[in-house]
Amino acid sequence: MSSSPASALTVQEPAHTPRPALSRSITGTLAGTSSSLTLQAKKNTVLKSHGRSPWYSEDGKPICDAFVIGIAGGSASGKTHVARRIVQSLGSIPTVIILSQDSFYKRHTPEEIELAHASRFDFDHPDAIDMPLFASCLADLKSCKQTNIPIYSFTGHQRLDETKYLYGAAIIIAEGIMALHDPALRALYDLKIFVQCDSDLMLARRIRRDVKERGRSVDGVLEQYLRYVKPSYDNFVLPTSKYANIIVPGSDNNVAIELISTHIRRQLDERATRLRQHLVGPRDLIPQSIIPLEAHPSLAILPQTPQLKGILTILRDRTTKRSDFIFFTDRLSTFLAEKATEFLPYRPKSVVTPVGATNVGKEIATEYVCGVSILRSGGPLEQGLRRVINDIRMGSLLIQSEATTGEPLLLHLLLPTCIRDRKTAQDTWVFLLDAQIGTAAAAFMAIRVLLDHGVLPEHIIFVTFLVARTGGIHMLQRAFPGVRIVCAAIDDELREMWLPGSDEGDGKTATEGRKAWVVEPGMGHIGDRYYL
């Protein structure tokens, strides 16, 4: 598929080709919230059915951008429908964002709002859209950073004050009538699509949509169409078809969708990384630091007192009752949190004591401190952190291993607002919680997520119970030397093992086994022992 505009490909289909039903919806979760929505419900959705695999190498630096598709065409030509069909055709897909140009209408004056309600404002002219903001948000998403896109009210004809947080997509589909108009936008696309549709069909679709979804009258829709929409299509929209790599019909477009999906899958396969094999290679190939692990400046180990060794002995014992395990886990997590807070910035504070004397002490010298737990093994560390810092804001990341490759997958994130807003992220200090650092695959991904949001590496304090000496800790320290790691103990071994698959009965296997790595002597599956 050539990227040259001159080689744009038009795909047509036989008139008798059946159109697949759209009753099967793909459920997506909006990053940063717990609300669920279906694919057909709204634009600007985050769709998750597979998770985001690593987009960075063992040095912690991003090595590939998200794959960006631009879809243009006339109003009601079927751009959003084509975007949804592409998502459905991809099958088992990583995280996808469908980004609508409609969110980027400029703020309007009271006079312009009055004209809009009278169907006398030209929303179909390029000047009505905040193209620099659209390009900026898309560029952030393409470079694997978070962004906050505006929310536009079509009933009130005004951009709202609140924004929508988006992050983590491997595929971004930007659609709108002017999606191919601006050169800055076109430069961001890996694939450019133009949806071509009959004018009568577009008008019929627009009347039905605007009356049903936007509360307009038929007369108002027709007046606006003749006054603004049709001239804009002829003068601004249709000419951008020359920039498209592929031209898709607005209906009966199965062949085109399959062609596009095949190309996207090929591109994603070429961008795939194999991170874990670099982190858990043969011991003699693991890059050891010239500084002993215990003396590395980024690693802080709790003093190995008899009390600490006694607690670890209880936690390592497989016969320890669950109630005792929870009690001593909370106790150890409190010790770790107390040690971790030593790396926060402090400033002098003068107070008056109950006896009337003045005392100069210390207070935390930052407004933004939060915790982020890697689910669910990081959960047992949360209680200790809350005991040390009252009312601390908490977030979470769900990172799991892909069954066949063992690669980490980012499946969900729920981050505090101080991280989601880039203006405050750089001033935020984050306690990142995980039970242990074995291969360090989850730690790599979690730290990379925070860095993508603008958190400084020097402001990340990784709190964990155990670190495997022969695991990925050395690669982690090399990739992120500014990140502090606080642990209770260093275990010497990281053993590779094969977990058995589940059995359906009658000798049939439901799922195949997968490779795993176990810290030894370790504490077992800490999250399972704590919660189950």
From TrEMBL:
Keywords: ATP-binding, Kinase, Nucleotide-binding, Transferase. GO terms for molecular function: ATP binding; cytidine kinase activity; uridine kinase activity. Residues 1-26 are annotated as: Disordered. The keyword Transferase applies. Its EC number is 2.7.1.48. Residues 68-250 form the Phosphoribulokinase/uridine kinase domain. Gene3D superfamilies: 3.40.50.2020, P-loop containing nucleotide triphosphate hydrolases. Residues 303-497 form the Phosphoribosyltransferase domain. SUPFAM superfamilies: P-loop containing nucleoside triphosphate hydrolases (SSF52540), PRTase-like (SSF53271). GO terms for biological process: CTP salvage; UMP salvage. It catalyses: uridine + ATP = UMP + ADP + H(+); cytidine + ATP = CMP + ADP + H(+). The keyword ATP-binding applies. Pathway: Pyrimidine metabolism; CTP biosynthesis via salvage pathway; CTP from cytidine: step 1/3; Pyrimidine metabolism; UMP biosynthesis via salvage pathway; UMP from uridine: step 1/1. Residues 1-10 have a biased composition (Polar residues). It holds the Pfam family UPRTase. Belongs to the uridine kinase family. This is Uridine kinase. It comes from Ceriporiopsis subvermispora (strain B).
